[in-house]
Structures are given as C-alpha cells and as structure tokens.
C-alpha cells in the first residue's frame, strides 16, 4: 500500500541525474511500477526541500531546481514555468503543447474522443521547456489526476480519495534527449519488437470469417502490396468469449494460418479483459482460482461488454497474470503470432457514459481507483509472459490501447478510436511525439481514421474517408513506428484498393517506401530498446529550433527530417530546415538549412530530407519484412560538410529470436 502522510515530514534523494523530493513523508515511498532494474535512490545532503504545508522550493546546492505549491490533504501540487512549452503527458490531448488544456490522467475509453479531457493512456510526466531551461517532472503516483495547464503553469490534483499519500516528485534535468533517456532508466525501456511487427498491418472490425481473412491476404499479394499482419477482431471468437474460435466462421484456424504463412502473413488476435460469465473454461478457471475483481461485499464485479454479462481478471495478483498468460495457448497453437489488448482501460460498461471511479470494484482489498491506471500494464505483462512460455525463444509482440508509465516494457501502443478527419490526422503526429517523450517509442494511430466522430454513434461511418485524406494518412503512417489501417464495423471497407485505382497506385508506392526504409526503422527500434530514445522525435530534440517552429515536422532518429502534409488540397508546404545541408530524399534537391523553404508536396510525395553526413541503408522491398530484410540493400551516402564526419549503421538479425542471431 502507498505510504501514509506524516504532517510536515519531508525527504530527498538522488539517482544519477535524477533528483527526488517527497512532501509528507520522511522516507521514500516504494514505486511499484518502476523498472525492475531501476537505479537505487540515495540521500544527498546537497538536495534541500523547503516546504511546510503550501509553497515549496527544491534546491540542489546553490541551484534552484523547482518551486511551486504542494499539499497532501487533499493531494495537490502546482508548478510555474515562465513562458514554457509543456510537453509529454502521453497522448492526453491533441496538440503538440499542453498549454491551454485540462485533462484527466486516467485510462479510459473515450467513446471516440467524445469525453472531454479523457485519454486511453495515463502518463503523469511532462517536460517544461523554455529558452532558459528544460526540466522533466514525474508525479510518482498511479492515482488518477486532474491537470490544468495554462501559460506554463501546471496544476495537478487527485481525482479520487488517495487515502492520504505524500506528494512524491522526481525531477529530470539536461537536454530533452537526456531527460527521455533518464525516464527510460527509471520506468523501463521498450522491448525489441520482431521485425515483422514493423511491417504493415491491415485490420477491420471485423473480418468475420476465415475466408474473408484469406481473401484480403490474397488480394494484397495479387496487387503487389507489401504487408505483414492481418488483425483478427471479436468476430473470430465464439460468442465473443475470449480465447475461443467461432466454430462456423473460423472452423479450422490452424489451416487458415498455414495458408496465411504460405502467403507471408501473420495474425494479431484481439483479447479483451472482459470474460463472459457463461460456463466455459476461462471463466471457471479464473473464478475457482479467486482471480477476479470483486465488489466490496466480496462477490465478483459483473459488467457488460461484448459477450453480455462479464467479469474481469485482477492483474494485481501474480497468479492471475501467470494464468492469463497461459490461457493464450489455444490461440498460439492455431498459429496466432501476437495479440492486441483492447477495452483494457478497463471498460466495465461498453458504449455507456459512466464514471469508472464510482464503480464498486475491489482488487483483493485495494479500491479500483488506486490501481486502475496500472490495469493495462498488468494485462500486457501477463500476455507477454504467456507468449514467452508458449513460444520460447521468440520475441513477443503485444499491442495495447491503454497503458501507464512502463507499458513500453511489454507492449506497443495505438491511440484508440480516432476519427476520419484532417484534425485527427494532425493529432496522430502530436500524440506519437508526446508518447515518445513520455517513454513509449513504439506507437501509432489507426490510419484513415477508425470512426466518424465523437460519442458512441461515432462507430457509424456510412462513408469512407476521401482518397486524399487516406493517402495523406498513409504517407504519415508509413513513417510511424506502428503502421496499421483499421476501421469500424459500421463503415465501408478501408483497404488500399477501396479508394480507386489512382489511390491504390499511390498506396503501393507508400507501402514499398515503408519497406525500403525498414533497415532504418529496425535500427531505430534497437536504439529505442537500448537507450530509451523515441523512433519519431521532435526536431528540437537534436537541433536548435525557434519557438513554435517545426512543430508539424519530425525526425526519424537524428538525421532524417519529415514534413507531412496536413491540409486538405495542399500541393506545397513550408519546411523549416535546421542548419547544414539537407537533401530531399525523393527529388535529390539540396537545400541549405537554418531557414524555411517551400517545397512541392503532391499527393503521395512526402517531403523527406537527409542531413549532410548521413549514410542510409535502403532495402529492396519484398512482400513482407522478413523477405525485405533478406533482400539486397543499397547504401546511400550524403557527403558531410567540410571538416565534419558522417556515418550510419545497420542492424540485422534473424528478425524474431530473443537471442538475436545478429
């Protein structure tokens, strides 16, 4: 249980570049969601916290580090940063900067982003950046928090009864890159994905039969469209019961997977935490093993999700995580390669607007509000443990809709039920960038948009997005860490061939471009695994950037600059280039940096620039990632400027073994 408040007590500690202070306790609370190998906190007399019941000042020797207000009853803390951008907080809101927003740090089904301030993920971490300094601030609690950000002021208050816990703050200093690296040391670095997970994923709610799945796979191959994964949604299950196959729609799943493997495809199967109360093996196993969430009277909590009445596993219990992991056996035996965890915020009442914190739910004596934000992490950890046990030696791949700090140790994240709109296309980039700054390098959004708009009726999308919007989203998605097209059940099909022949031809070019760049993306995935740095990075992470400039651009690593098109009807866009020489990757034109330039950007042609001194390995696109990374590669060299040294690197292994065989 969390540490209890001791009035006026306080303490400080240091771990590497990170400094920590606690208001309301004379000993450091345990951080249960920290990485298993997180550094040890040690007292340091140079650190000083001046605090009694309100204003505080935190110093490191003679250096003023941070000041504001803090209180423990109720839990609240506020900071003020002069004229600062406030970044991070995961995917809490759209927009690159959190100023002018209010939101709740709590995992929740947003009902197609129809609940103001709601987010599928919860990250109580932000970076404050102005012309004088850059600080990372982590509020070390998993309790739901209400946040208001305005003109560099960040006010945070508990959204539930914390039962009396101290204010525990960790401060990270240095450059943006150093802060993100240090965050990953504390909460854990991302797993190294199998190479196939970096390929293209095609999905829909739902491909309802094995025949439909195979038809999609065969059409990809017939149209010469590279792809790796087809997702299986809830219609693959028997009456929406997790860990089952529908006896009529998917009567021979192993045979289907053999046919898919011959076509070079794998599958990701959906698994929700809601378990049908109907008598079947999964429910009986969890019930008899005392592994379910309960009400305060000790009876199982019953909600309503896809199967109707449902109960929910309690992932705070080690035995639950181990059991849940092994329940994937039937799906793995049929050939499923990985899993996507949906509705894992968790959703207790599907399609309803309700207050999750008001539900009478207990985790073996712990109120749900205190551990809700950790639910998806526990489910992902359980899934990974099962995959490791059932497919020993193979790298697991899990995709999660929800998550808290540390989710990257177990799963990639997608940004939930977005809209087919130009606004959400832009927010795709903003969310992925801020997730990367919050420790999650492997992230992406549903390309083309999942639904129509906010609210539960956003699932009804009678018209597919325009070909222009779809292709612009494919341009962006092809350069994101996770790349998937997905759409709702109540929508026209959204495969690349669904938008007419011109769009199909452009989609083919973009897919092949993705696969040509797989050596770069795979190396950056390794770098993320080893250093914690994101794959997709803000330009200011590596280059001096004027305030407010290049916020709609990004870097792949530190030498490849991308300027997506976010405006309907645009055929050109302005691109800000940092100092140095930059070569347009698709046209070969060289531009001097330190300025903005206007470049052509016709549909299908994303402005991508290579920094001078870049050595880029480019693959010959195959039908999937495995084939691509075995194909011949070329080395493109962009000469360094006089007096400087360039370089590049390549990472190759067998693509899926834990040991690597590099």
UniProtKB/TrEMBL annotation:
GO BP annotation list: carbohydrate metabolic process
PANTHER family in UniProt: ALPHA-GLUCOSIDASE, HETEROGLYCAN GLUCOSIDASE 1
Residue ranges annotated for the Glycoside hydrolase family 31 TIM barrel domain, each copy included: 191-524
InterPro entries: GH, Glyco_hydro_31_C, Glyco_hydro_31_N_dom, Glyco_hydro_31_TIM
Domain Glycoside hydrolase family 31 N-terminal: 64-142
Domain spans labelled Glycosyl hydrolase family 31 C-terminal: 532-615
Keywords assigned by UniProt, alphabetized: Hydrolase
Organism: sediment metagenome
Protein name in UniProt: Alpha-glucosidase, family 31 of glycosyl hydrolase
GO MF annotation: an example: hydrolase activity, hydrolyzing O-glycosyl compounds
Record family assignment: Belongs to the glycosyl hydrolase 31 family.
